[in-house]
UniProtKB/TrEMBL annotation:
The keyword Chloroplast does not apply. One of its GO terms (molecular function) is ATP binding. Residues 5-228 form the ABC transporter domain. SMART domains: AAA. This is ABC transporter ATP-binding protein. Keywords: ATP-binding, Nucleotide-binding. Gene3D superfamilies: P-loop containing nucleotide triphosphate hydrolases. It comes from Paractinoplanes pyxinae. SUPFAM superfamilies: P-loop containing nucleoside triphosphate hydrolases (SSF52540).
Length: 240
């Protein structure tokens, strides 16, 4: 399968407002696709539609060949929300073992995931006593358990120091090289260049869907933040 996710004409309303205005895009399998855009542009809403927890007004979202939200996809998909979804009163290891058990897996798989996110030293600490960055890595560890085919990560690097951010991005690419598809949202443009492909969202519309190199070439600048601004200006000029 070439595309892990196919979105067609997706319209979503939240609180009586249209927040996605007919988005269509493909997310290729085995790559890291970045979802970038300003705060409130609709990144989390699009992610929720891919994960299958968002009521949609119209359009379709197919994930690994099935409609988003289908029961068989639960085992194929790892999702990390912006708010860490781990139990504060359990240790990192207890959390990981709990999520492993839910997938019918054992302690080895749980410990592997903890090591993968660089939390082996903190594995016996209660999640409630971790820093914000460590807590989001604990969440990521739980999502990695069972080798999901699609990993959807909503701002996974927020609160991480530069060294850890670099380590996490290296890990994302290792996972992609092993066949995992990753959809990673960020509003930090300096992370855009680390992605294989970019989806640029603004005000609920897709304004860019290409490789970083192609987006740089089209906008005539190496700086992806500036490229994003130029794309916006071009669209504003066309609309005026
Ligand atoms: N529960 C909700 N009810 C009503 N409107 C909502 C709700 N959640 C989000 N919205 C609105 O939907 C729009 C898109 O929000 P979304 O969370 O998808 O943006 P985002 O790009 O992920 O933002 P951020 O980077 O700040 O997380 C925003 O205008 C937001 O105000």
């Amino acid at each position: 399968m070439d595309n892990a996710v196919e979105v067609r004409d997706l319209v979503v309303e939240r609180g009586k407002r249209t927040v996605l205005h007919g988005i269509s895009c493909d997310i290729p399998a085995g790559q890291v696709t970045g979802l970038l855009g300003p705060s409130g542009s609709g990144k989390t809403t699009l992610i929720r539609a891919v994960v299958g927890v968002q009521i949609v007004r119209s359009g379709t979202v197919m994930v690994l060949g099935r409609p988003a939200g289908s029961a068989p996809l639960r085992r194929e998909l790892g999702y990390v929300t912006q708010a860490p979804s781990v139990y504060a009163d359990l240790s990192v290891r207890e959390n990981a073992r709990y999520f492993a058990a839910l997938r019918g897996l054992g302690a080895t798989e749980a410990d592997r995931a903890i090591t993968d996110v660089g939390l082996a030293q903190a594995c016996n600490q209660l999640v409630g006593n971790l820093s914000g960055g460590q807590r989001s890595r604990a969440s990521l560890a739980c999502a990695l358990i069972g080798h999901p085919k699609l990993l959807v990560l909503d701002e996974p690097t927020v609160g991480q120091d530069p060294v850890l951010r670099a380590d996490l991005w290296a890990r994302f690419h290792e996972l992609a090289a092993g066949g995992t598809t990753l959809l990673v949202s960020s509003h930090v443009m300096d992370e855009a260049g680390r992605c294989d492909r970019l989806l640029l969202v603004r005000e609920g519309r897709l304004i860019g869907d290409d490789t970083p190199a192609a987006i740089r070439a089209r906008s005539g600048t190496d700086d992806l933040e500036e490229a994003f601004l130029r794309l916006i200006r071009q669209l504003d000029e066309v609309a005026a």
